[in-house]
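tool=predict chain=A
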Amino acid sequence: MRYLAAFCTIALLYGNAVAQEFEVSGTDDVFVINPSILQATPKWDPEFTDIPVGAARAIKIAREYHDNQEFTGFSALFKWEVSGCALVREDDQRWYWIVQFRGQFAPEEMLAKKGIHAGGGSFPGPKTIFHRIPVLLTGKLTPTKIDFLPPAVKRVHSEEESP
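tool=predict ok
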């Protein structure tokens, strides 16, 4: 019983130190939030000060990122819209926004925008998918996994190669 109590205590303490990841399907981006990233953001106490980055600004920041993506695979067949924005509190009064985008499966419309005629076929996957983009109270997106890789490991595209 003593070992179980020790394990549960360690699991609870470790749970707050684990990174959270937010994958954006159809891209190589996986946004990361961990304690060291949050420590570089301002503390905020909602009882005493106004929020440094409001919901409207967080949505604008996330939308600028999302609207500039060239989605690949099935994600390119979805029509995207903002569907929510939530403020998340972590330890030590560190906060961040999660801006959610809802993708509705719309192959004919999305292919027509690219000048491609959609012919037959079916899609066995979901008709709605979601992207969640974390925005820090510094007014910036969180880093992606690739930001943590050394330059020799990062994937680069040459002029001849399409991204």
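The radius of gyration is 20 Å. Residues 3-16, 150-163 have pLDDT under 50 and may be disordered.
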